[in-house]
Amino acid sequence: MKSSTSEGVIQFLCTLTPPPPWPDALIDLLNQARQKAKVRGWLGQDPQRYEGLGFGNLSLRTATPEHPNAFIISASQTGHLNHLTPEYWTQVLNCNLAQAQVNAAGIH
């Protein structure tokens, strides 16, 4: 993995394909969980932390036979947003940590 000079930021080479249409019920469930995490201070944005950058992500496993390790995750730098619309969610299909490569479906 390649670390950047910013604390907590890891960079990967990402191959990004268009996402599937996320079901409204899934987006609602993820946003409800995000709100609980925000209340607990697990994600957000604070000028005193991380150079003022947003922190925290929410993820959910979405394993399928084709992609047994897949998960959906919120986009980086969205901690300050109260509600994430579908374009702020990406599904990581697989990754190679040794080569810092990720294959994902999403916009961001």
Topology:
Layout: E1 2-3, E2 10-11, E3 13-17, H1 24-39, E4 44-45, E5 54-55, E6 59-61, E7 71-74, E8 89-96, E9 101-105
Parallel strand pairs: 3-9
Antiparallel strand pairs: 1-2, 4-5, 6-7, 7-8, 8-9
Characterization of the model:
The strands form three sheets. The chain has a five-stranded mixed sheet, with no helix packed on it. Strands 1-2 form a two-stranded antiparallel sheet. The chain has a two-stranded antiparallel ribbon with strand order 4-5. With 108 residues, it is an alpha+beta fold. The protein has one helix at residues 24-39; strands at 2-3, 10-11, 13-17, 44-45, 54-55, 59-61, 71-74, 89-96, 101-105. The mean pLDDT is 85. 13% of the residues are buried. β8 and β9 form a beta hairpin. The two termini are 20 Å apart.
